[in-house]
Design a protein that fits this description.
The structure holds 2 protein chains of 2 kinds.
Chain A (H helix, E strand, L loop, with lengths): L7 H21 L3 E5 L2 E5 L2 E6 L11 H10 L4 E4 L2 E4 L2 E6 L5 E6 L13 H14 L8 E8 L2 E6 L6 H5 L9 H6 L2 H6 L7 E7 L3 E6 L20 E6 L3 H9 L5 E3 L6 H7 L1 E6 L2 E8 L9 H9 L3 H9 L29 H10 L4 E2 L5 E3 L2 E2 L1 E7 L6 H15 L4 E7 L1 H5 L11 E7 L5 H6 L2 E2 L2 E2 L10 H12 L3 H17 L3 E5 L2 E6 L3 E2 L2 E2 L7 E2 L4 E3 L1
Parallel strand pairs in A: 3-12, 3-13, 19-20
Antiparallel strand pairs in A: 1-2, 2-29, 4-5, 6-7, 7-9, 8-9, 10-11, 11-12, 13-25, 14-25, 15-21, 15-24, 16-17, 17-18, 22-23, 26-29, 27-28
Helix pairs in contact in A: 9-11, 10-12, 15-16
Chain B lengths: L25 H18 L1 H4 L31 H36 L2 H16 L2 H12 L3 H28 L2 H8 L4 H37 L11 H8 L8 H29 L5
Helix pairs in contact in B: 1-3, 1-10, 3-4, 3-6, 3-8, 4-6, 5-6, 6-8, 7-8, 8-9, 8-10, 9-10
Classes of the chains: A alpha+beta, B mainly alpha.
């Protein structure tokens, strides 16, 4: 074997190659770069984001749709650290009776189809929300009226102090009225037109959505980190249902940001990546007992179920710190009027057995399940497997199943597919004794949504406990129109304590929305309103 | 004048193997032992399991295989070995159920299309063709989506989806036997159609199915596990093998045993049934080489 010392020409070649590589790397960083506090800011690139679930439409009433809507639509107001700040509306005032809100709108905003944003656009969108968002009535919005070109009134059927928080969440994005009236439902579903930072280029169903930058964007909310077009040119939004695949995409550099980090990787994610974690508003993942029929109409059975379950330990073990235990089943910890009831129903098997004995479930069958009048103590729990409850959540429920069996309760888990879940299967009072799920919402009037016996004269499908108590319902309605903050908090405290004490709705874990971000991407932030929506407009790469 | 039917020479049963004694291959012996082991696990799981398969232990989660937990534990501390053992019953029952249903449907449709009059065989044939136009898994997915996820749905969906293939085979065999010389001879000798079908057509047409059933059980376990893996099978906390794979997939990067061992169980059962099926097929067809 022979070796050669580098010749002069070869040395020159190496130097030239290195120089060329430097030039090329500069070129490959796109249209520009500037100095950022944390390194050279690289712009005009593509952000690849791996999300978990793919909704059928870009906008609508499901939280997964709000994630997408936020990229394309602006809203009237934004929520920032407990305060409402301007967005498309520069100012607003509420009438004496609280039922009319007058917004003054920006006059320099244009939708990406060229339609100007004005009061008529808000009127058209108010009608569209009523049509397209199933639970819109719980905001108490009725109609809207254009006072002049840039002043609009929103009318409510009753006072709603939380209306601004609701309007600032991702569901209440403003779409182009021209697009709403002239384009097909399909087009407005998959490629709606907004005035937001991103434009849908293509929705490849089952794969992802390609967003391109809105180069004319000038209407960022007051709490954004900059106003103007997004720093990056494209946003490649992938749907990757499998958590491990998302994690692998992040660790191999195929994705810059991933949603919902697998709990087994949570510690690593915190160490090696920037991590965002937001406990959503509304209601946490909670148990809702059927109080209309079956064995769970007996408070002692409900309480025994809870005493028999080491809920805190299960959550710590299964979620490994990525998701917090939550004892409150009515309001999420991120709600302003939240009451901490974590200490209610500690793990106490003896107490559980005592309560079941008192309730008359004294005889055990050969399987160790308690019986009364020959009927076994069976609690059926249908749950949206995947759509509402992740695989970790399912494991946690199986741990509950095992623990309650030790006191003689037969918990039957009935996983439902996404189609079955959204088709409302197993939702009748005679089909289940227990429900499990969350509800993302921006305000404490989630209590009205979840516990009102009727909605529009018909049974309230969102009331999974089948609770029907006019007196309590009256308290809920009174709390949500209370304008004095102290009285309002006291009223909500009383209600939360009631639902906990009565063991009607009891929490299990906070509904969190987390994301892990590559160290080379900075500036991604999470909306602190109910949904924890991700904002990519301010995101930039660093060298 | 009555004509007494003459005795018909027995229909040629499938060619017998060569005259020399067959030596069963070692692989088939091992496969049979594996099947016996799994059958014991299915019938008497308590004999083999070391723990309660549903007992969680929140202080012993994701434990590696060890002396106390031979195949490790899952994310809520359940013993994986015991779960696989107890899951054998569900997995094998689903496999057997699928084959039983598939065979019933296939026999009815196969005989109807092979022996029935044209107004029966025509529509049945068209129906078979339509069903065969769908890939098996797609048809099974469609059916399980309609029926909802459960063990019964798995059996029905996979059974119905795999039946057309078997039905076509039965039809072909039936037609082939129906046209054979010994059947013609039997008819010529005055045997009734019923006798001919019972004594000659069915036994000869169905002989190859014995091997197919053995092969099919293994395949059915794979189909059913696949659907369970997709979340379309039995409900938790069952330890059906596909469900175990599904539950373990989120932990795969930190707990390899949750995927490897249930996967191995599926492979072992499928491989064993397949080897046994092939052996039977070879014996039945008489071309077994010892």
């Amino acid at each position: 074997m022979t070796t050669h010392a580098p010749s002069r020409s070869r040395t020159l070649l190496i130097v030239l190659s290195a120089a060329l590589a430097l030039v090329l790397s500069a070129c490959s960083s796109g249209g520009g770069s500037s100095s950022a506090g944390d390194g050279k800011r690289i712009v005009d690139q593509t952000i690849t984001y791996a999300h978990a679930q793919e909704p059928p439409c870009l906008w609508g009433g499901w939280v997964q749709q709000a994630y997408l809507s936020r990229q394309v639509f602006d809203s009237l107001v934004s929520y920032d650290d407990g305060k409402i700040v301007p967005w498309l509306a520069t100012s607003w005032k509420t009438s004496e009776d609280g039922r009319t809100i007058t917004f003054t709108l920006r006059d320099d905003v244009t939708f990406t189809d060229g339609t100007p944003f004005n009061a008529d656009a808000v009127v058209a969108n108010n009608a569209n929300w009523a049509k397209g968002i199933g639970w819109n009535s719980f905001t108490y919005l009725t109609d809207a009226k254009a006072v002049d070109d840039h002043t609009v009134e929103l009318h409510l059927s009753q006072r709603n102090p939380e209306i601004f928080q609701e309007l600032s969440n991702g569901h209440y994005g403003i779409q182009s009225p021209t697009a709403l009236t002239t384009r097909s439902v399909e087009d407005n579903c998959h490629k709606p037109v907004g005035s937001g930072p991103w434009i849908v280029k293509q929705w490849k169903v089952g794969d992802g959505i390609d967003f391109v930058r809105n180069d004319d964007y000038n209407s960022a909310p007051a709490n954004a980190k900059h106003n103007g077009p997004a720093y990056q040119k494209e946003l490649d939004w992938k749907f990757v249902p499998d958590a491990n695949t998302r994690w692998s995409a992040l660790t191999t550099g195929q994705a810059d940001v991933i949603y919902d980090v697998p709990s087994v990787q949570w510690a690593t994610a915190q160490k090696n990546y920037e991590v965002l974690n937001f406990v959503s508003g509304g209601r946490p993942q909670a148990f809702s007992f059927n109080v209309q029929q079956g064995p769970t109409t007996d408070k002692r059975v409900r309480q025994a179920f809870l005493y028999a379950t080491d809920r805190k330990k299960i959550i710590e073990t299964v979620f490994k710190g990525s998701v917090p235990f939550e004892g409150n089943g009515t309001l999420a910890s991120s709600q302003p009027d939240y009451l901490n009831v974590d200490s209610a129903y500690p793990y106490d098997v003896e107490k559980a057995n005592q309560l079941l004995d008192e309730a008359g479930w004294t005889v055990k069958n050969k399987d160790g399940i308690r019986t009364k009048d020959g009927k076994p103590l069976t609690i059926r729990l249908p749950f949206g497997n995947g759509a509402i409850v992740t695989s970790d959540g399912s494991a946690a429920l199986q741990a509950v199943q095992d623990q309650v069996k030790s006191v003689g309760i037969d918990l039957k888990l009935i996983p439902l597919t996404q189609t079955q879940t959204f088709a409302g299967e197993k939702s009748a009072p005679d089909e289940k004794e227990l429900s499990f799920g969350y509800w993302v919402w921006g305000a404490p009037n989630i209590l009205d949504i979840n516990f009102a016996a009727k909605q529009g004269g018909a049974p309230n499908g969102n009331n999974t406990t089948f609770f029907d108590d006019p007196e309590v319902e009256q308290k809920i309605k009174a709390a949500q129109v209370e304008t004095d903050p102290a009285k309002r908090t006291a009223a909500y405290d009383e209600l939360q304590q009631y639902f906990s004490d009565e063991a009607i709705a009891v929490g299990f874990y906070g509904m969190t929305y987390n994301a892990a971000i590559s160290p080379k991407l900075k500036g991604v932030w999470q909306d602190q309103n109910s949904n924890g929506l991700l904002n990519f407009n301010d995101a930039y790469f660093v060298s | 004048m009555s004509v007494l039917p003459l005795p018909v020479p027995p229909a040629p049963r499938a060619r017998r193997g060569r005259s020399r004694a067959l030596r069963v291959p070692v692989s088939v012996v091992i496969s049979a032992a594996v099947v016996v082991l799994f059958v014991v696990a299915a019938v008497f799981p308590g004999l083999l399991a070391t723990h309660d398969p549903l007992k969680t232990d929140l202080y012993a989660t994701l434990q590696k295989p060890s002396g106390s937990h031979w195949l490790g534990t899952d994310d809520v501390g359940r013993d994986l070995f015991s779960r696989i053992v107890w899951g054998t019953r569900t997995s094998l029952l689903i496999g057997l159920g699928v084959m039983a249903l598939a065979m019933v449907v296939a026999v009815v449709m196969g005989l109807a299309s092979g022996l029935g009059p044209s107004w029966v065989s025509g529509p049945v044939n068209r129906l078979l063709e339509v069903m065969l136009a769908f890939p098996t898994l797609l048809l099974a997915l469609l059916l399980v989506a309609l029926l909802g996820p459960s063990a019964e749905s798995l059996i029905v969906s996979v059974g119905v989806s795999t039946a057309p293939g078997y039905a076509r085979l039965i039809r072909a065999q039936t037609i082939s036997v129906k046209r054979s010389g010994y059947v013609e001879a039997a008819r010529a000798l005055g045997h009734t159609t019923r006798t001919v079908v019972r004594q000659h057509v069915i036994p000869n047409a169905f002989r190859p199915l014995v091997a197919l059933i053995a092969l099919g059980i293994g395949t059915s376990v794979v189909w059913a596990s696949g659907l369970s893996f997709l979340g379309l099978g039995v409900a938790p906390p069952s330890s059906e093998w596909g469900l175990l794979l599904n539950a373990g997939k989120t932990q795969i990067t930190v707990a390899w045993w949750l995927e490897i061992f249930p996967g191995l169980a599926i492979v072992l059962v499928t491989l064993s049934f397949t080897l046994i099926g092939r052996y039977i097929q070879a014996v039945v067809e008489g071309d077994h080489v010892s």
